[in-house]
Write a structure and sequence with these properties.
This protein has 365 residues and is of the alpha/beta class. It contains 15 helices and 12 strands.
Amino acid sequence: MGFKMGIVGLPNVGKSTLFNALTRTAAAQAANFPFCTIEPNVGEVAVPDDRLDKLAAIAASKSIIPTRMTFVDIAGLVKGASKGEGLGNQFLANIREVDAIAHVLRCFEDGDVTHVEGRVDPVADAETIDTELMLADIESIEKRLQNIVRKVRGGDKEAVQQERLMRMALEALEAGNPARVVEVDEEDAKAWRMLQLLTTKPVLYVCNVGESEAAEGNAFSASVAEMAASQGNAHVIISAQIEEEISQLEPDEAEMFLSEMGLEEAGLDRLIRAGYDLLHLETYFTVGPKEARAWTIKTGTSAPKAAGVIHGDFEKGFIRAETIAYDDFVSLGGEGPAKEAGKMRAEGKGYVVKDGDVLHFLFNT
């Protein structure tokens, strides 16, 4: 299971620079990792995880396969997109297909790069896109409410549920809030997702700062951090210019460059991990002499569902999972020693997989 993050932003905020860095990184990985496909507007990159390398070293695995994340470069937005201005219709359609939004905000001053509004104000920029998404959701809900009137009058339970949820969303939107602020009961969760409202997507604000501000940020990124916290969203500070330079360097050179800039790691790594956290995802591992591999699951996933990420037959015929915690696997030196120390557990269908679990599934064919 991977997930898609759509990169959005107003013109001249550094969105294309950031995406180009991502796709160069992905292209560089293509020779080393399988299942790495690159299209002009899609970049698939490995989720950085030092644990996988350590597990592979202990098990002497021949190959290392990280879990992956897909970035989608979404058409630029202008004010009026909800009414089809610019590439508005394409923009809105593309957002419906992603799991989360990485909203690139200009947090740098540069007289050579014109801002579409003639000023640098990342909070106002965020509000521009948020407003367009809310307007699009309002229009979508109003149309759908008109279309299900007859079914509601006829007592169609599904239509009645949809109408109730749409009116809850409409109330929030008309008050100037995104639909994600609406609290939905568990029995309504599936129907809520089926509404496919744009403003239910979680948002990660990407503060694009100048090279000299990449480590600490600046007043602009501080204002974005405050806004994100008030919304319950996340933010990350990145210099797209630095990321583009790093993407063209060899790993050793990139590490040296980052050190000179006072950075511990590439901003893209922070971006990927922040997106991972935003969607409440976690990783489990399968490890052996052939390969060490990372798998992505939602937090709270049961063992059979986690097995199903590898293959549907694993879930259908699930018997049990042999489980070793990551720390035990590493500290004891592998599967054999962990088993001898009593650290390998047999878990049944009710087991909830934990981040870092090293798993082996037993199943009936």
